[in-house]
Structure formats: structure tokens, C-alpha cells
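Page header: ASSEMBLY MODEL / two components / 271 residues total.
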Amino acid sequence: MARALINVPASAKRGEVIAIRTLISHPMESGFRHTSTGERIPRDIITGFVARYNGEEIFRVELFPAIAANPFVTFNTVATESGTIEFEWSGDNGFSATERRNITVE
Amino acid sequence: MSNKSPDNKIAGPSRRDMIRLAGLAGLAGSVTPLAMRPAYATAEAMQEAIRKVVGEATVTPGKVKLEIPPLVENGNTVPCEVTVESPMTPTDHVQAIYVFCEKNPQPNAFAARLGPRAGRPAIATRIRLADTQTVIAIAELSDGTFWSDSTDVIITLGACLEDLI
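Prediction written out in full:
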């Protein structure tokens, strides 16, 4: 299981725009590098990231090899209601990781 | 230093040769070593990738702000932030944000989809840049228009094309 760091405010006012910062450990091997013997190192990257707020999708991004190792993605969302924000990463070689954070909206 | 550049079908000269050649070119003032660079994506490849996204629509400069430091030492991790001017209402919001790199082996960097629930359209991430180049951010609004911003970035050490030792 890849290690993920997620920063979501624990509480927010209703209607407030909150910033969400996420980082997951992953080498993001681009597939464009070669070993010293000339073999191409196969691509191994995270290709997709989705955030869902109480089940509803709020943000989705498709990632390419041009994303640096340990992909760091920040985005905003409106704090609508208390609940759970779910983060899901998926990638090459069946990579999949899911994290959840709770938020209290007053 | 080996010279196994990816996607380079013709074996290119080694770096040492390049330096010698560059020196010679400097003396003679005629030969340019530019033609012997590894096969990065070209401006045309980037235009093609952009066309795939925008279709026949015109892309107008404005509304989008792409922030990348103008001078970067290490192309392996370059902070990149895109913000778009938009009220983000259900009828007028940003639908998607794309970033393209001119001279990376593949022109796409990321493609994000968002909606009115984003509140404020801003995305930050860290990208890889293989060489000194122009980076373009394009935003797709809910009314079907496309807006862009571009930045020139100078890279001292390029990313991801270095061979492992």
C-alpha cells in the first residue's frame, strides 16, 4: 500500500471553498528511461486520481509520465455538508489506492 | 556517458562528441549541433495533442494563469499551478484544465475535470520537464470556449531522459 498524505481541513463553514492537498508515494517511472544495458524500463505510473465528496465526484485528473514522482495534486472544493471525502488513485500494473478523510461542516 | 537516448533510432553522438562539435561549430560558425538532439516531442506533436482536446474550437489567450518558475534547476520536479478566472456557477464554470509540454517525450502532462463544486478553479502539481521549453495550460469553460496561457521555462538539468548508471 502506497503511503499517502492528505490535507483536508477537519472543519469548515458551509459554502466555504477549501483547499485539498494530496501526495502519494509512487516512482512514476516514465517509460522513457533505459538501463545501462540499453533496455527500456517499462512505464509504471499513476494514470488517474478521483475525489468523491459523499459519493459524488468533485474532481478527476488524468496523469501522464510528465508528472513528477510521488504525485502531488492540490485542488479546491466547496464544503457543502459534513461527511467523507474519498480519494482514489489508479495506475499501471493494477495499482490502486484509496483513502478517506472526514470533514465537519457547520 | 552512454548515448542510448529513447526513441532515437539513429545512434546519436555522445555528449563528449556534442561538446566537441559545439566547439567546432563555434569556431567555424556554420554547423549546429541542434539537429542531433534526442527525439523529444516537437511543437507539432504538441499542437496535435491540443487539437485532440479542443477539436475545431479556437483557443484564446487569457483568463488562465499558468505559474511555473521561469528558471528551474532540476526538471524532475517543477512546481506548476494553473488558476482560471471564473465565477464557478452551475451555468458558468470551468469544465477542464489541461497542461501540455512542448519538448517532453509525450506532450501531455495532465488533464483535470472539475465542475461548479470546485468553488475556485485552481490546480497545483509538480511536473517533469525534459528541456528548456514552452508549457501551455488550456481551460475549457462550460460554454464550450477554450482559453490558454503559456510560459517559457529554462531548465538547467532535464528530467527523465537520463539513463540509469
